[in-house]
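Task 17 of the worksheet. Students: predict the tertiary structure of the chain below and write it out as structure tokens. Keep your answer in the requested format; marks are given for formatting as well as content.
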Amino acid sequence: MTKKAARSARAPKTASGRKPAARAPASARVRDEWRARIAAEYGSAAITQHLVLWLIQIGASPDVIDAGLVIVGDELVHSRLSHEVYLDAGGVEPPNIDRDSLQLGRRLHVPLEHDVLRAVVRFFCLGETVAVPLFSHLRERCTVKSARTALDRILRDEVRHRDFGWMALDWLATTPMAEAIPTLLEAELPGMFGDLERSYGTGNPAAMDEPSAIMADTDREWGLAPPPEYAEILHRTFTRDYQPRFAARGVDATPAWGARLATTP
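Model answer:
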């Protein structure tokens, strides 16, 4: 092999003739984040599977049930893709899966339909709705191939998962519990919004302690974002999504949003 050929072998070029950009190094923070996402996606699959069982038990529309079953498969794909990113980042530890969290809690003093409503709103109308702009934001500056592939698939699916939540809520509004839904939600939403605020918003100490500028660009290239940006997205989501979507269904979410920081875990 000539010296020129050897140099070409060591330095592959893109179609434009340029050397490909060096991949961002993976920090411990990157590995921790993607390892946590593996477990989170497993949790989402288990919770959705449990919710689908409840929907079957209350005789939900087959369309709603079928949509929920598709989501279970999506979440398992997301977990596999997250695991591939974690390995790509140099991760070697197994995911830290909390088995006790892989189920929905049943409140035996209320009808099953009330717990279905609670799960639909908490995990889908709220959780999956804010997930759409969150994952869109993570994807914007993500350049590492494995992470970008994962976020492309996750973001595409999250839109459908969000829509499932509002579809399931609309189906519940066709059942005998319809008239009770606004009252039930107005009682439940402050705590649900409080949980979101403590996870993603200003109720999370990390959101106040770490300015956005501190996060390294290389971490962003692996699909990460700092806590203050999560908080900003959550607050925009209330104005753009939660408030108008609930209002269209006869639920005033504004008082619950205002009371969210006064709630306890």
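Marker's comment: The mean pLDDT is 90. The CA atoms of residues 71 and 160 lie 8 Å apart.
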